[in-house]
Amino acid sequence: MLARLFAPLLLAASSCLAAFHDHSPVVRRNSTGLTDAVTWDPSSLFINGQRIFILSAEFHPWRLPGNPDIWADVLQKIKANGFNTVSFYVNWALHFPTPDTNGGNGDFEAGTYRDIERFIQEGKKAGLWMIARPGPYINGETTGGGFPGWVGNVAGSLRTNNPNYTQAWVPYMTAISKIIARNQITNGGPIILVQAENEFSAGPTQSPYMQAVIDTYRANGVVVPITHNDQHAGQAGNFSPDLPGTGRVNIYCGDSYPQGANSWAQVQSIYYSAHKAVAPSNPLCLAEFGGGFLLNWGGAPFGGTGYEKYSNAQTTTILNIYMLFGGTNWGSIAAPVSYTSYDYGGGINENRVAGPKMNEMRLQGLFLRVSRDFLAANLLANGTNYTTSNLIHTAELRNPDTGAGFYVTRHDSSPSTALTTTQITVQTSLGPILIPKSGTLTFNGREAKILVTDYVFGQSKTSILYSAAEIMTWTTIDNTDYIILYAPAGQTGETSFLFNSAPTVDLAAANGVSSSFSNGTLVLSYTLNGSSFVTITLGTTSIVAIILDKPTANQWHAPIIAGPGTFGNFFSIGTNQTVLVSGPYVLRTASIVSNRLSLVGDLNGTTTIEVIAPKAVSTILWNNVPVRITRTARGSFTGQVGGTQTVSLPALDGTMTLIGSLPEIDPDFNDSNFTLADLTTTNYTNLPPLAGTQVLYSQQYGFYGGNLIFRGRFNASGEETAVNLTVQYGFAGGYSTWLNGIFLGSSQGSATISLSTDSWPIPSGTLRVGQTNVLVVFQDHMGIIETNTNGGKEPRGIRGYALVGGNTTFDSWKLQGNLGGAAHPPDTFRGYINEGGLWAERIGAHLPGFPDQTWASGSPLSGVSKAGINFYRTTFQLPVSVGIDAPVRLSITRSTATPVSNFRLQFYLNGWQVGKYVNSIGPQTIFVLPASLLRRQSANTLAVMVWAMDASGATVQGLQLISDGVFSSSLRFTDYVTPDFNAQKQLRATGGFIQPM
Ligand SMILES: *[C@@H]1O[C@H](CO)[C@@H](O)[C@H](O)[C@H]1NC(C)=O
User: Fold this and answer.
1) pTM across the whole model
2) Closest Cα to atom 12 of ligand 1
3) Is 199 a catalytic residue?
4) Among 506, 501, 503, 500, which Cα is nearest to 535's?
5) How far apart are CA 329 and CA 332, in angstroms?
6) Beta strand 284-290 with 316-325: parallel, antiparallel or unpaired?
7) In this model, does residue 102 exceed pLDDT 70?
8) Is there a domain that residue 575 lies in?
9) Structural domain of residue 233, as residue ranges?
10) CATH number, position 274
11) If you measure from the C-alpha of residue 281 to the centroid of ligand 1, how many angstroms do you get, rounded to a whole number?
C-alpha cells in the first residue's frame, strides 16, 4: 500500500487502488468482439487483461537474407534491450513472383528468407509479441513498395476496388492471413496486432478496398485488433474506428519521423491533439516512429541517439521504432529511393552490432515495463515554463487514479545538440518543488528524461515523492526491492522517498551519497559518479537503491527468468522474476536451475560482470562455462568473463579469374533465346511510350529487376545520323549503348532523376548500309518505384526510340532480363530477385562451383580498358572459431580520378548479389557481407562485376575486407550451403569464354 495518502487529487478514490490492478471494473475495455486476449481502452492495450506499453522494433525478415537461423540473433538482441514486441512487413513481391505461384498459395519455402512462419516462431522463442504488416502495399523503400512487378501491368488503378487489382492481391492476402491467423496469441503464437494496408488514405474514410482487406483478414481467421497507420499523422483520421465510413480499423495509428522531414511540432501537438479528436476511443499508437532515417542515393546516413524517448510526451503507449534493425537491400529488393544498405541509423546496425542507441532503448524499455501508472497517465500541459531554462521543453503527465506524475523533458528544438543545465518545478502530493534543490539537471543534445513524482514501486509499495535522477527499473529479489536510478555523470542527483518514520540508511557501499530524514521524507543527495548502493530498511521493508551515472547504467541489464507456460518468457508484471547484471555487451537470456544462474550473451572484450541474484544462487555460468565469482561488500557477485579475440582477414587485392561479360554487343551474337518485344499496347497509361512502335517496358515481358539488355535491329539506308533514346531506370540509374559493336556512349543518371533522354550521333563507318544493324542498350535497374495510389506504374526499359535521318525504323526488338524472368528462374532458392540479365549471371558465373579454370586472370584493381563489362571471381577463407561472431564488410576505395570516373560494380557473395556501387553517385562504399551468407568451414566465393561506362574504361582503386568487431558470442554459425552452380547447370545458359575488355 501507499506509504502516505495524497492530498485532494486522490481522495475521490477507492478507485485509486482498484485501478492499480489489472481486472478492475473501473476500466472499460474494448475488443474486436472475437477475442479478449488483446483489448484496449483509450490509454493502452491490454494483453490477457494486463495493461502493457507496446515498445516495438521494426525488423524485415527478408533484409537479413540467407540462413534463417540468424533471425534469432537480432530478435534476441531486440529483446535483450528492453523491447517487448517486433513489427514486421511481409513483402508480397518475394512470395508471388507470378500471380499463380504455387497454385496461388505463394512461396514461403522453409529454410529461406521467405519462411515467414519461421520468423514468427523465432519471435516467440525470443519472448516478443509481434505486429504483422503484410500490406498488400507496404512501401518500405522496397521495390514496387512490395507489389510484385506484374502488378504494375494490371489494367486500371491500384489500391482501389478495381477488379483487376482485387484479383491480383486476394490470393496473397488469403495466404498470409492464414499464416498470421495460426500464429495469433489465441493460438499460442506471438501475433497481437495486424495492420491493414500501409500509410493509406482514400479520402476521407470511404474505401471498399480497405474494407475488403479487413474482410479478408477476418474471413481467414484473424481475430486480433486490426490497425492502420495514417501517413498524415492524425490529421485526417483515415479509417479511424470513431469516424463513419468503410474500411474502419480497430486501432488507428500514425507515423512520425521527427529526425527526417518532420519536426517536434508534428509529434507533439498535431499528432496528440488530432489523435484525441479523430480516435478518442483508441490508445495513442505510433505505428512508425523514426529510429533513424532513410538513406538515399547520393546522400548521407542519419544517426542520432536518444530522441526516441520524446514520443512519450503525447502519452503514446503503442510505439514502434522504424527501423530498429534495417538490414540490407540485396539483389533487386531496393526501391529507387534507397541503395544497398538499409542500415537506417537503427539501434542495431546492418551488420547486427547493437550500438549506443540500444542502451538508450533498454533504459527506456526497462522503465516502461514496470511503470504501470505511466500507461494510463494523461497529458496535463506542456511547454518551456517548467524549467528555469526556456531551452527545455516539458510535457506533464499524470495518472488520474494514483496521482503518479511523469515529466517528459528534452530540448525544445529537435536539432539542438547543446549542453543545457536547468532546474524543474514538479507537482507532488506535498506541493510544488523545484528540483534538484541544489545543483542542476543536465541535458546533453538529444537526451530526454522522464522524471517521476509520487511513483510507487516494489513489493513494499514504497513511494518516491520525486527524483532528479531517472528510474531505470525496479524489481524484487527475495524480499528486497531494488530500484535503479541514473543520471548523466557529474549531474546532481536527488531522490526523495516517503516513509512514516525514519528508516535505517546504510551508506557503506555508497560513494558521495548523503541522506537526511525529516517530515516523512527521506532525501538521498548525490553527485553521479560510477555506482553506489544504498540500503534502506524500515520494519519489513528492505530497499536497495542502486545509483548509477549514465555510462554505468548503460552496462546494466535486467533479464527476466522465464516462468512456466506458453508465454513464460514474455515479461509480465508480478509473474516474472528478474536478475540484475552489469557488464555484458549483450545479455540474451538468464535462467536459474536450483543454485545455478546461467547467463547467455555476447562480449566485446574482457568484461567484469556484477550480478544481483536470489540468495539461492551460488554458481554462475557464462555461455555454459562456470565463472570464477567472488561476493562483493554490497552483496552482489562479481567475476571476469571473455578475453581479447582477433580474426585475421584475407586480402582481396590478389589475382582473380576474369571474363568479359557483354557478348551481346557483337552484332552476330545469337539472341534466339531473348524475348521478342512485340507488344504495342500498355497499361502504363500514365507513362506511355514516347516514340517507337514496340513497347519496351520490361515488366510487360516478365522481368522485374536487375540489369536489362535490349537489342534492336534495323536495316540502314545510310542516311541515319543519330539514335534517339529515352531510357527509364529509376534514381541513380544509367545505361550504355553500342551500335554494331561500336560504343556510342553512356548516360550516368543522377540521384534525383528516373530517366534519361539522349541523342547519340552515329560515328562514320559504323552503319552497315543495306544490311541488318544491331543497337544494344545495357541498362541498370534501380528497383520499381513505390507509390501512393498508382503503384508500380513506372516502367523500366526503353520509353522511346527513333533513328534520326532517313525514314528508317527498327524492324524488331529483343530483350533479356534475369534468365527465365520471374516465372522460370533457374535459382528458385535465392529467388528471381537475386539476379538480372547480365551474361555472367545468366550462365551462373556468380555461383559457387562455377568452372572458371579456362578464364583469364586479372583484378578489378588493374581495370577495364574500355567501355564494357568484366566479371571477376575469387575465393577466400574466413576461419572464425566457434564461439566468435566476427561481422565483416567489403570496402571499396572510391576512385578519386578527375573528371569523375563513371563505373558501376555489383558484388556477389556465395551467389547472392549483396551490393551495388555507383562510383559517380555514391555514397555507399562499404558493403555488409551478411554472416548468414558467409561460410566459416569452407571457402567463400566472391564475384565482382565491373561496368566501365566511359570510353576510357575504369579501375577500382581498392578492395578489401574490414572488421566490424570481434565478439565472443553464444551464437553458433553453421555454413549455409545454398545451391551451387552444379545444382543449376542444366537450367543455365551455355557459357564459353568471352574475351575481357
Ligand atoms: C469501442 O470502440 C468504438 C469504436 O469502434 C467506440 O465507439 C466505443 O466508444 C469504444 N468503447 C469504449 C468503451 O472505449
Assistant:
1) 0.95
2) 30
3) yes
4) 506
5) 7
6) parallel
7) yes
8) no
9) 38-341
10) 3.20.20.80
11) 5
